[in-house]
Amino acid sequence: MQIWLDTIDFTTIHHARQLGVLAGVTTNPSILAAAERPVEEVLDALLDLQPGLLAVQVTSADPAVQLLQARRLAAKSGRIIVKVPAVGAGFQTMATLEREGIPTLATAIFESRQIVLAGQLGVRYAAPYINRIEQAGRDAALLLRESQQILDRYGQPTVIMGAAVKSAEQFMQCARAGIGAATLPADTYRLLFASSPELDAALQRFDSAWSANPLAAGSALFSAT
User: Fold this and answer.
1) What domain of life is recorded for the organism (predicted)?
2) Most buried of the four, 9, 44, 86, 215, by CB within 10 Å?
């Protein structure tokens, strides 16, 4: 499963890139609006910081304006994938862009029907909002499994990208469902590396046993210098 980062936290992006697990970076209007730099400058920095794709969302509900914005973004870099809300005329926008060879990401997904339609259109990625689906009282894990099964049944290459992933357990739901990608905010990404009381206790037992034996603790092979 690909790991994307849904953030403009450059330190976190650099960590994931150095670790070798970063497939790309996603943004949205809220993320870019919160930056204290011009949008164009932020996008350039994100493209320079990592070699993967960069997802950028259109900001208008008007299909003509969506196409205008999308074409500008595509002209800026061949590594930009255009995010379009999967509602109303957004489907027509994505269909047009995909025919033009501009890759799209269907966003703001709360129901499997949106993913099914995205698959029919050949959209590259479809991003269901995992945490928000659960907050609405629905089973996000079931939606992921059923949607992936439908895409597989009809041989549609659209990649489901779990979005709005707010916990390590939600990340694991994405992995267990067999979807192709998940995009994580910086805080959730850091949770993947977090310790636990059980793990801390196990490591402490190792340290205590090692320190208690002078022959082990004094080994030149394991010296810190």
Assistant:
1) Bacteria
2) 86
In this prediction, residue 81 has a pLDDT band, given cuts at 50, 70 and 90, of very high
Q: What pLDDT is attached to residue 25? A: 98
Other Cβ atoms less than 10 A from the Cβ of 42: the count is 18
- Residues in contact with 65: Cβ distance below 8 Å, sequence separation at least 6, in sequence order: 58
d(CA 158, CA 156) in angstroms, rounded, equals 6
| Domain 2-194: assigned CATH number | 3.20.20.70
**Residue of 27, 83, 84, 125 marked catalytic:** 83
Closest CA to 58 of 28, 101, 98: 28
Q: Can you give the three-state secondary structure of 165-185, one letter per residue?
A: CCCHHHHHHHHHHCCCEEEEC
Q: How remote is the C-alpha of 190 from its chain's centroid?
A: 14
d(CA 68, CA 62): 10
166 catalytic residue (yes or no): no
Task: Report which residue type is found at 137.
Answer: G
Calpha distance 112→144 (Å, rounded)? 8
Q: How far apart are the first and last CA of the chain?
A: 39
Are 80 and 46 in contact, with CB atoms under 8 Å apart?
no
Residue 170 pLDDT > 90: yes
Which residue has tokens 């995909």?
98
Element (H or E) spanning 163, and its range?
A: none
Query: What pLDDT score was predicted for residue 106?
Result: 98
